[in-house]
Every structure is written in C-alpha cells, then in structure tokens.
Design brief:
This protein is of the alpha+beta class. A hairpin with a 2-residue loop joins β1 and β2. It contains three helices and five strands, in the order ββαβαββα. Strands 1, 2, 3, 4 and 5 form a five-stranded mixed sheet that branches. The protein is globular, with a radius of gyration of 12 Å.
Length: 90
C-alpha cells in the first residue's frame, strides 16, 4: 500500500486523517490540510475496518484524529495541526 508523506527537507513524514461518514469536523481537518498543500492519507473508519482497528489501538474511538509525524491530534485544532507540522521542520 502506498503512503503519502509530507516532505520537509530530505525527510518524509506521514500525515493521516482518521475520518468517518457525515463528520463535518473531519471535513474541516481535510480542508485545512488541503489549503496548506499538505498531502495526507484518509482512513474512513466507516468503510475501513483496518483503519478503525488502528484508531482504537491508538486509544481513540471518535473522529477526526489527525496523525502528524508521531503526534495525534483529536478533533479540529488549527493551532495544534500547524504546530505539529512546524515541529517536523525541526
């Protein structure tokens, strides 16, 4: 399976959005990342049982959850997402 990565310098970092159907907050997270030109992998837990299992293993049971590098962000928080993306640049 191919994974999109957020490229900063020579390092590649995954950005993953765990989403679900009819989740307006999920749409906000995906739109926010798209506006910033950040590629991401979406795992819609309404359709993707493996993605749902991954989300539960991370300790979450609701969406959205955004993974930026090794950081998990629950809900939509633009400041936290920007901070996590900025932290990838070192």
């Amino acid at each position: 399976m191919s994974r999109q990565m957020y490229s900063i310098g020579h390092e590649m970092h995954p950005v993953i959005v765990y989403s679900s159907n009819r989740c307006s907050t999920c749409q906000m997270v995906k739109g926010f990342l798209s506006l910033r030109g950040v590629p991401f992998v979406e795992k819609n837990i309404s359709k993707d049982l493996t993605g749902r299992a991954e989300l539960l293993a991370l300790g979450f049971d609701s969406t959205p959850v955004t993974i930026v590098g090794k950081r998990c962000i629950s809900g939509f928080d633009a400041a936290q997402i920007d901070e996590a993306l900025a932290a990838l640049t070192g």
